[in-house]
Design a protein that fits this description.
Neutral Protease, domain 2
Amino acid sequence: MSPKQVPPTGVDPYFPTHGDARYRVHRYELALDYRPGPNRLGGSARLSAVAGGSALAEFALDLADFRIGRVLVDGKAAHYTHRAGKLRIRPAKALAAGAVFTVEVHYTGNPKPIRSQWGGLGWEELTDGALVASQPVGASSWYPCNDRPADKASYQISVTTPSPYTVVAGGRLLSRTTRSSSTTWVYEQSAPTASYLVTVSIGQYETVRLIEGSTTPSANRTVPQTAYLPARLLPEFTTDFARQARMMHYFEELFGPYPFGEYAVVVADEELDVPVEAQGLATFGTNHLDGSRTSERLVAHELAHQWFGNSVTIADWRHIWLNEGFAKYAEWLWAEHAGGRSAAEHAAAAHVLLAGLPQDLRLGDPGRKLMFDDRLYQRGGLTVHALRCELGDDAFFRLVKDWAVRHRHGVVGTVDFTTHADRYAAAPLDGLFHAWLYDPLLPALPVARYQA
């Protein structure tokens, strides 16, 4: 990208056409009606926002190809254009710098995934129901938003759908009201949430409360954990997720208190390539259950994202290794804790794998094309392991917990992390971070300073 092409501050360089850095959203209130048969979605979105340092004669929301009923700014009709996934809004009167304002958008249509190099993103119609998997830029497939990870907001989501269906969203269920043949589910997510981490799952699911499985007390409370899945999969689920409660306790010991009020798991009645994390919720496919805990590492990975990625959120997608590196390393830590291979053994296996693959990935800025490459996950985990080897266990685990606690519900980048890590080292870590984050050539396997 040449200097003339550098996006404005706050705009993601990997997705410069997404989001609008001229304002911030503090809260979304979505009131939606969904009919699974015709895949029909309609309703309203009310956004509470604040203008940035300059007056706004116009601003933009990301929204896919829906029919717009009306657009209001501070209760007054606004002029707008809607094309190419952008809803450009011109208020009747320009908004002053720093002004607090509301936007209300009424819309209807047939939601569908947004096309990308990774397949469809966002709203996905299932054989019987729907789910949302928006990472990285699929949120606009179902609601108007300022679609950039740094713009975190609270959410209230109301979904009305036929009564046989269960609606699951991240956050606390405030109410469930049935009228005639339809039921309205209302969820509140009070923690700041990035747009790509907002999700809804709709299906004919059984509700399961996870039983506490650990003798180790959590930090100050027991985190409510609930699962939603097809009833026929209960036997497999009971085995495959039997240790999630213990996992929660263990991760609280390592990373600090769980950052949200509750945790939900949805097993969609569909096969999925990979599970998907969302704020306070993770979605798995039927193929991730087999009654043998084959996918338990993925259970650990998605749970770890609640700290790394969801609570501590990256400012833009250049820093995705901070999400995936820590989630991958959490897999290895859990395996070791549960009596499997040690983290050092996992690191050695990852190193062998990466050594046989192309050496063209810059972990700290992988580029849009490689941001979800499997090498990023493996090298991210190895980078975390290299830091552990350099610091030793005591300093390393203090560093990790302090990182998650100090930046709880915040927005960070790679420089924030490297600066943080230097505080726990006896000598500067510049060489280590340059080798692992910015030199594509794979460094040597780290030598541990602890007993594995």
